């Protein structure tokens, strides 16, 4: 049995990135994810990698842009306000078709907000976060083990589809410690003939660019990118169904909210309530299939989130509003308790909204 | 023997070469117009050119090429 | 025997710059230096937003277009990707470097990042049609200082070489111009040194080039070169502002 290491979620991300071949990390301090930068500061110099604390999150994302353009697996991490600062850079990564991994350990917002966990950047992440038509693939781990596994997956997806990939975590999973196994399959990064590594006098120059003053050309790049997004939606949507086969009520939640909800689902089952959990592992592309199925045999869906109701909109779209979808949430850094979710399930079971 | 040549259609008629020539041999063509609609630079007396390339150094568009046999 | 011709490191495409814009001269000097040092195959140029954003169509080496102000950060990412191999230069205007990108240039200099920065100071935002830049002179009329730049309203022009020279980090800072043949020669010497410093691993080298913008200064190309002498250079004195290796202290 592969040995396990007790580790914080944040550190598991950093170690997994290194395993995935990432040798360039550019960060900036912000609670609750600074452990990632601290970990990289210790490890990278020992393995011939680059750790650099940039002067701002804006500078950091642009350093990522440069290293990615030069063909490297590269990562940055931040939390909500820092991710807002990176918005333009992320749009440039998408517009230049550059792979990169961006970690957001979400915290309460808006504004300076708080440092407790939240999921209130769901819209920002799943709708791109910056200007223009584009998306990031957005992965949502709910354990330290998944923090590691999905980091590796993020690098694979970023390279495979040449685009930014976000690991949408939160302060809780980042700070909690759980045993994690790093005995994971690693695919080497693919060749990158498009990268700006120097022509060596052997080829015409490569240009990494997102400027197209000719509108027809710019339109074409958007159309091609969206054809790729359709591919991703078909192949890369990931989710977990828990006790959904005979469920009459479905609860849906990701990340820390899913951990809390699983407890409530188990309790409710003991009370004879047929309830199950749909847990998205990618929130972009949003996994429609489990909701379409649930709409056939469930009376309603409860969306448990740490925000004022964001994923709930995607859930309604996914089941075409065939059945009612209600919200059970806490915000500002408050985390719903299993009992709060259990009460919502009980109310739903009684037929109440 | 100095051979000076101009890429007529690249010239924007800015005149910086005219000011730079120590022998005052260059001028903006009073009537000729290139593809871009500019009056291109031209040399009035090629035989007097000493090949110093001052004109070429001041040209923002690499219009002027100079050879010495 | 060719005495003078277009350098190989410049692709054979027409430049979009206005007639008399000295971006074209500076592009050629950078390309001549790349040819002479034989480094085109390992050079990566970074052109951020500004008139020169389309430099990626002009230089034969690999090029990257960067967000406004962020070229020094992008350059850092590229340089750190393969420090022994990659020769990295940024080509930035004053709106880019001295306004939105001030933090990036200050910290790249403070880190003594081993990159070469070509900083074009023409005291105006050219691409967007002639607005006031942080380097616009007091009294200078622009689209956003229509009554002449008034320091009571928008402060004083920024002297980048002097500002960065206070930092411990940077290796080499020189201000040059290209408004005459002797000055073009001196500018090329400085640009070559700034690239050589990078090859020798000496660190952050920036050449500030006072450049003309006839269109937005509202002058003929020739008049613009004269305005550099009469108005720009008195406020932006030419010279070496830092040269750690040579340890020659510029008589301030």
Query: Shape of chain B from CA axes?
Result: globular
State the end-to-end CA separation of chain C. 44 Å
Strand content of chain B: 15-25%
Helical element count of chain B? 2
What global shape of chain C is seen? globular
CATH topology of chain C: Rossmann fold
Structural class of chain B: alpha+beta
Uncertain stretches of 5 or more adjacent residues of chain C: none
Series of secondary-structure elements of chain C, N-terminal to C-terminal: EHEEHEHHEHHEHEHHE
Oligomeric assembly: heterotrimer
Calculate the mean pLDDT score of chain C and round it.
96
Sheet with most strands: strand arrangement of chain B: 1-4
Q: How confident overall, as mean pLDDT of chain B? A: 97
Largest sheet data of chain B: 2 strands, antiparallel
For the sheet with most strands of chain C, the description reads: 7 strands, mixed
Summarize this, please?
The complex is a heterotrimer of chains A (353), B (69) and C (252). By secondary structure, chain A is α/β, with parallel strands linked by helices. Chain A folds into 2 domains: 5-235, Rossmann fold (3-Layer(aba) Sandwich); 240-349, 3-Layer(aba) Sandwich (Rossmann fold).
């Amino acid at each position: 049995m592969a040995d396990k290491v007790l580790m914080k979620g944040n550190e598991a991300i950093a170690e997994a990135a290194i395993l995935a071949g990432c040798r360039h990390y550019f960060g900036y301090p912000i609670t609750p994810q600074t452990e990632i930068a601290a970990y990289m500061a210790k490890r990278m110099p020992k393995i011939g990698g680059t750790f650099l604390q940039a002067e701002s999150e804006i500078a950091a994302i642009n350093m990522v842009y440069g290293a990615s353009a030069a063909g490297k697996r590269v990562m940055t991490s931040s939390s909500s306000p820092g991710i807002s600062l990176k918005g333009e850079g992320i749009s440039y990564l998408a517009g230049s078709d550059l792979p990169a991994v961006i970690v957001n350990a979400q915290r309460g917002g808006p504004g300076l907000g708080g440092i407790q966990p939240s999921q209130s950047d769901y819209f920002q992440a799943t709708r791109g976060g910056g200007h223009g038509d584009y998306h990031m693939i957005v992965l949502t781990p709910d354990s330290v083990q998944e923090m590691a596994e999905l980091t590796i997956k993020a690098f694979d997806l970023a390279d495979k589809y040449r685009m930014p990939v976000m690991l949408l975590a939160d302060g809780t999973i980042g700070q909690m410690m759980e045993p994690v196994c790093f005995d994971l399959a690693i695919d080497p990064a693919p060749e990158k003939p498009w990268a700006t590594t120097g022509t060596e006098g052997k080829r015409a120059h490569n240009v990494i660019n997102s400027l197209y003053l000719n509108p027809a050309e710019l339109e074409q790049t958007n159309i091609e990118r969206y054809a790729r997004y359709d591919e991703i939606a078909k192949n890369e949507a990931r989710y977990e169904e828990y006790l959904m086969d005979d469920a009459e009520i479905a609860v849906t939640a990701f990340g820390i909210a899913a951990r809390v909800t699983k407890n409530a689902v188990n309790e409710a089952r003991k009370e004879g309530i047929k309830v199950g959990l749909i847990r998205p592992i990618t929130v972009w592309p949003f996994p429609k299939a489990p909701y379409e199925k649930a709409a056939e045999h469930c009376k309603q869906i409860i969306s448990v989130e740490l925000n004022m109701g964001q994923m709930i909109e995607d859930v309604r779209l996914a089941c075409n509003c065939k059945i009612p979808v209600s919200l059970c949430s806490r915000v500002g850094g408050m985390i719903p308790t299993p009992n709060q979710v259990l009460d919502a399930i009980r109310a739903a079971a009684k037929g109440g909204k | 023997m100095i051979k000076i040549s101009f890429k007529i259609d690249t010239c924007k008629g800015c005149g910086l070469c005219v000011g730079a020539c120590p022998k005052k041999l260059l001028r903006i063509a009073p009537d000729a117009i290139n593809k871009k609609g500019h009056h291109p630079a031209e040399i009035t007396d090629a035989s007097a050119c000493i090949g110093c390339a001052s004109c070429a150094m001041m040209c923002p568009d690499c219009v002027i090429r100079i050879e010495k046999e | 025997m060719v005495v003078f011709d277009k350098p190989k490191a410049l692709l054979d495409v027409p430049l979009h710059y206005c007639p008399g814009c000295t971006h074209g001269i500076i592009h050629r000097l950078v390309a001549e230096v790349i040819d002479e040092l034989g480094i085109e195959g390992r050079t990566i140029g970074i052109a951020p937003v500004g008139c020169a954003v389309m430099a990626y169509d002009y230089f034969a080496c690999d090029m990257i277009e960067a967000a406004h102000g962020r070229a020094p950060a992008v350059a850092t990412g590229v340089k750190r990707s393969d420090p022994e191999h990659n020769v990295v230069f940024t080509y930035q205007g004053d709106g880019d470097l001295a306004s939105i990108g001030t933090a990036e240039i200050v910290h790249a200099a403070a880190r003594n990042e081993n990159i070469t920065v070509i900083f074009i100071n023409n005291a105006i935002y050219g691409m967007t049609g002639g607005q006031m830049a942080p380097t616009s002179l007091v009294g200078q009329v622009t689209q956003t200082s229509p009554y002449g730049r008034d320091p009571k309203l928008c402060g004083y022009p920024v002297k980048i070489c002097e500002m960065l020279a206070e930092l411990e980090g940077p290796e080499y800072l020189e201000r040059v111009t290209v408004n005459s043949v002797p000055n073009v020669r001196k500018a090329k010497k400085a640009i070559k040194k700034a690239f050589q410093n990078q090859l020798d691993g000496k660190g952050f080298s920036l050449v500030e080039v006072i450049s003309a913008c006839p269109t937005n200064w509202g002058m003929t190309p020739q008049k613009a070169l004269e305005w550099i002498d009469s108005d720009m250079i008195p406020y932006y004195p030419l010279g070496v502002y830092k040269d750690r290796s040579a340890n020659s202290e510029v008589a301030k």
